[in-house]
Design a protein that fits this description.
Distance between the termini: 102 Å
Helix content: over 70%
Structural class: mainly alpha
Largest sheet: 2 strands, antiparallel
Number of helices: 2
Order of helices and strands: HHEE
Oligomer: single chain
Shape: elongated
Strand order of the largest sheet: 1-2
């Protein structure tokens, strides 16, 4: 019985050391990925807040645009530098592929 313990003891020490190393690595990776998930969640919340702010700003700018274009006349536009187009080109969607095509008039 004593000879069995002497024969397997060096292997047992290596196996225990390997299992300890694997456990330490697993705990380290678990902590790392947990912190990354928390950081990702914080960044997502900040991005959602920024998107909400941009949406609010865009709504205000659209309101300004609609207010200004409602009061604009063609004569005022010409005074501000608007020029009527010389030629008009039609772009249309043809067929089931919804590909854009060009047709000169």
């Amino acid at each position: 019985m004593k000879s069995i313990a002497i024969t397997y003891t060096p292997i047992l020490h290596r196996v225990i050391a390997l299992l300890a190393a694997v456990t330490v690595l697993a705990v380290f990776l678990y902590g790392f990925f947990l912190l990354e998930a928390v950081a990702n969640t914080a960044k997502r919340a900040a991005a959602e807040k920024h998107v909400a702010e941009l949406t609010s700003q865009m709504g205000a700018l659209e309101q300004q645009y609609l207010t200004q274009t409602r009061d604009l006349t063609l004569d005022q536009a010409h005074q501000m530098g608007f020029e009527s187009p010389k030629t008009v080109t039609t772009v249309y969607a043809a067929g089931p592929s919804k590909a854009l095509g060009y047709r000169a008039n």
